[in-house]
Design a protein that fits this description.
By secondary structure, the protein is an alpha+beta fold. It contains one helix and nine strands. A seven-stranded antiparallel β-sheet has the order 2-6-7-8-5-4-3, with no helix packed on it.
């Protein structure tokens, strides 16, 4: 049985064709803008400054109907299901650990929060 060897040039050309073909196929498969529900606000980058552990700070909700805040250089949200009792604002927030915070709302509700990876999308609040 005889083995045929390919030149290095042929191998490089074959790899380039495969790479370009794969890039085109990936582009076609993932093209388009992701569809978000109408009125969804997307927050890309937190603007808050670092907070001190155990200190209570005023909190501003990113939406009046969702317990999501920009705090300690990150976005924070509840870990799982939640119901936000009204009135929610004014609210305060306290850093309880490196990755835990507690949001206290005007209604007296206390919600545990965890850091959220941006971007954060919040659906519009119904009236």
């Amino acid at each position: 049985m005889q083995l045929r060897s390919l030149s290095g040039r042929s191998v490089v050309i074959a790899l380039l064709v495969l790479a370009i073909g794969g890039a085109v196929a990936l582009n076609l498969a993932t093209r388009g803008t992701p569809q978000l529900p109408r009125g969804t606000r997307v927050f890309l980058t937190p603007t808050s400054h670092r907070a001190s552990l155990g200190v209570t700070y005023p909190a501003r909700l990113l939406a009046r109907c969702a317990p999501v805040v920009d705090f300690d250089g990150d976005f924070w949200q509840p870990p799982g299901g939640w119901t936000l009792a009204q009135p929610a604002e004014p609210a305060t927030i306290r850093l309880a650990g490196p990755d835990r915070a507690v949001l206290r709302t005007a209604s007296g509700q206390s919600l545990p929060l965890v850091r959220a990876v941006p971007p954060v999308g919040i659906a519009s609040c119904s009236p």
